[in-house]
Design goal:
Order of helices and strands: EEEHEEEEEEEHEEEEEEEEEEEEEEH
Distance between the termini: 53 Å
Shape: globular
Bound molecules: manganese (II) ion
Helix content: under 10%
Largest sheet: 9 strands, antiparallel
């Protein structure tokens, strides 16, 4: 059976003034074990009081990867220099391919912020292979209605298929490399099996509840289980009602060079990204 590694959040910080996050990676320094995924921030659940000045993170750039935002509670708005904008609420996903570069802002949606409320969201960064790091930016809003819901056998729960395939359903996200992204709900005392291709990296993040992986390895709230798939089934059993984000994908076997919001393959490409951003080549918000 595949060896399972367990992680707690490796750091806690605030992104801008609107996202109180617990980071699972890269803070745990597990780049190679979670490729093609680069970063996992778990925001909230945090209560934000009513305000006329929406919190969030103002204009900032990205290059070389994709940002995937999944909202569970609350509402987030996005606007970028490629001319894309959108609002996502509970169940919705925003899949933003920064690629050669965008400047964007991510804020609490204005009307929601005026009411105040609890925000719970995940931001996942997905790497691009070197061949795609300098392609044109792309933006996909995946609304909850467009995300197939697959009931599990034995009334064990359900899976929403955001990317890749599960149980005969195909997720709406267009991805550059093969991967699966699943929003999984497993009921207490029920179990299920997941299966991935040989060599894929698998990361199971528990938002709430508790599960065991392969008969042991208890994983609880805000914890992450990581394994390399041998192709064998991965058995999950819930001790209490559990909500998980399942991230699985074919690793990208290329060097990773990071500098803040830029993720490239080499240091000179990071220097170029900084120069291009400063020169306005990633655009501006209107
Ligand atoms: Mn951003």
């Amino acid at each position: 059976m595949d060896q399972v590694r367990l992680y707690e959040p490796g750091s806690t910080h605030v992104v801008g003034d609107g996202f109180h996050v617990r980071n699972l990676f890269p803070s745990n320094e597990i780049d190679r074990d979670v490729s093609p995924f680069l970063m996992l921030d778990y925001a909230g659940p945090t209560f934000y009081p009513a305000t006329d000045h929406p919190r969030g993170v103002g204009e900032h750039p990205h290059r070389g990867f994709e940002t995937v935002t999944i909202v569970y509670q609350g509402k987030v708005s996005h606007r970028d220099s490629a001319g894309n904008s959108g609002v996502i609420g509970p169940g919705d996903v925003q899949w933003m391919t920064a690629a050669s570069g965008v400047v964007h802002e991510e804020l609490h949606e204005r009307d929601w912020a005026q009411q105040g409320g609890t925000l719970q969201a995940v931001q996942l960064w997905v790497n691009l292979p070197s061949s795609h790091k300098m392609t044109a930016p792309r933006y996909q809003t995946l609304e909850t209605e467009a995300i197939p819901l697959v009931p599990l056998e034995g009334r064990a729960g359900s899976v929403r298929v955001i990317a890749g395939e599960f149980g005969g359903a195909k997720g709406p996200a267009t991805t550059v490399t093969p991967m699966q992204l699943l929003d999984l709900r497993l009921l207490a005392q029920r179990g299920m099996a997941l299966r991935f291709a040989l060599g894929w990296n698998v990361a199971l993040f528990v938002l709430s509840g508790q599960v065991t992986v392969n008969g042991s390895n208890p994983v609880g709230e805000a914890q992450l289980a990581v394994l390399a798939s041998s192709g064998a089934p991965i058995l999950l059993e819930a001790q209490e009602d559990a909500m998980l984000l399942v991230m699985a994908g074919e690793p990208i076997h290329e060097p990773i060079a990071r500098y803040g919001p830029f993720v490239m393959n080499r240091q000179d490409e990071l220097a170029q990204a900084v120069n291009d951003y400063r020169a306005g080549k990633m655009g501006h918000l209107d």
